[in-house]
């Protein structure tokens, strides 16, 4: 009697063997996936960035547009980026002949590219969960993440260079009162381009640098880490230009706040001042124009004087806040507004003195002798630096600089 044959003919044993074979086949079908997963884990490095990151994702997309190795695909995703530097909206950009630029980057799906001497697998996909977002994954052979880290760092540096070469100006968001929106990008200007009285700009710059380097000292003294400046003087003496130049030198943003804005109310101003972006100068221009003896100067001002003062005191809790207020008429300001603790430094920017006149002349014509004579004679009249610069531009345009007439 053949025992093995007899055993194999038993239905129960046949069923057990079939079950075992099925289990083996079920396990074996996952072997390729497991091998691929093992290979990815131990032989491939992958970096993933998605559009929920407001900085890294745009930086990577813009860098992919510029990188020649990533332009070797035939399927693109386009993203518009505004080029305007002076206007507050896309509509204004278009009206002034500055349409947005289209950035092209590899489209959805998988792309295999040769980038900087390495094979790169790029996968771009749209994911839908509770929100919709894009995801870009970069993979390369090797367990070391160094290549991908360098690639991402290059994208970050390219984006940072584009941002730091321009001056970001923010205004209160008219659609969501209580936060800020970037209104425009402007060109950074050196401090030397603002011709002030000797040493004024340099002293302010040094004071700001000391402030930003003294956080620990403020904390030890128990003093809120903030600083306030009042720039006062006649129109055209460089108050706004000085703030712009200081922000440019220190790579800061400028947040401009008009107290006549409809979103600036007693309820919203606390939120605005508490949410000023880090590394920003807060600029309130012509502060004398909004209140007359603590009453609103006109119907557009929806902010009370006491609400404004309370907000200024509240901003003391916002670490690192720097406030600049400007006025053409310091005598009109309520003493409570510019008391110590709210304003730390008062800087008068007056009419051009002889040294300013000389340096303004040299900006337009490199003739020290003529500049000295121009300054000596023109200093007898009272002229703002802006007026002097306007006259010099006009008269040099005509081929000759003339003396400024007294007024």
Automatic annotation (TrEMBL):
Residues 225-353 form the AAA+ ATPase domain. SMART domains: AAA (SM00382), BCS1_N (SM01024). It is a single-pass membrane protein. GO terms for cellular component: membrane. One of its GO terms (molecular function) is ATP binding. Residues 19-194 form the BCS1 N-terminal domain. This is AAA family ATPase.
């Amino acid at each position: 009697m053949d025992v093995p044959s007899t055993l194999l003919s038993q239905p129960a044993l046949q069923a057990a063997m079939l079950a075992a074979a099925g289990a083996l086949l079920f396990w074996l079908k996952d072997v390729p996936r497991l091998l691929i997963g093992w290979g990815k884990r131990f032989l491939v490095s992958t970096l993933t960035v998605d559009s929920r990151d407001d900085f890294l994702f745009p930086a990577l997309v813009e860098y992919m547009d510029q990188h020649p190795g990533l332009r070797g695909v035939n399927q693109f995703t386009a993203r518009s980026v505004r080029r305007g530097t002076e206007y507050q909206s896309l509509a204004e950009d278009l009206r002034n002949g500055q349409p947005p630029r289209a950035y092209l980057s590899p489209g959805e799906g998988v792309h295999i590219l040769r980038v900087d001497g390495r094979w790169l697998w790029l996968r771009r996909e749209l994911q839908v969960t509770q929100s919709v977002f894009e995801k870009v994954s970069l993979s390369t052979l090797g367990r070391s993440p160094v290549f991908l880290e360098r690639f991402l760092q290059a994208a970050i540096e390219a984006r940072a260079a584009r941002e730091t070469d321009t001056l970001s100006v923010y205004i209160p968001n008219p659609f969501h009162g209580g936060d800020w929106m970037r209104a425009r990008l402007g060109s950074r200007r050196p401090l030397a381009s603002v011709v002030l009285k000797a040493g004024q700009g340099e002293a302010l710059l040094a004071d700001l640098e000391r402030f930003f380097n003294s956080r620990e000292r403020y904390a030890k003294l128990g003093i809120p880490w903030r600083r306030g400046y009042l720039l006062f003087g006649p129109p055209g003496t460089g108050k706004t230009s000085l703030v712009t130049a200081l922000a440019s030198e220190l790579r800061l943003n400028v947040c401009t706040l008009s107290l006549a804005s409809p979103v600036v109310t007693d309820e919203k101003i606390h939120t605005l001042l508490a949410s000023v972006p880090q590394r920003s100068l807060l600029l309130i221009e012509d502060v004398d124009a909004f209140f007359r003896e603590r009453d609103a100067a006109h119907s557009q001002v929806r902010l009370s004087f006491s609400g404004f003062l309370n907000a200024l005191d509240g901003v003391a809790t916002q670490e690192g806040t720097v406030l600049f207020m400007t006025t053409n008429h310091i005598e009109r300001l309520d003493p409570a507004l510019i008391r110590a603790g709210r304003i730390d430094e008062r800087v008068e920017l007056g009419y051009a003195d002889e040294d300013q006149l000389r340096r303004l002349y040299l900006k337009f014509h490199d003739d020290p002798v003529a500049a000295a004579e121009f300054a000596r004679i023109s200093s007898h009249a009272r002229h703002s630096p802006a007026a002097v610069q306007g006259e010099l531009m006009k008269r040099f345009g005509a081929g000759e600089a003339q003396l400024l007439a007294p007024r």
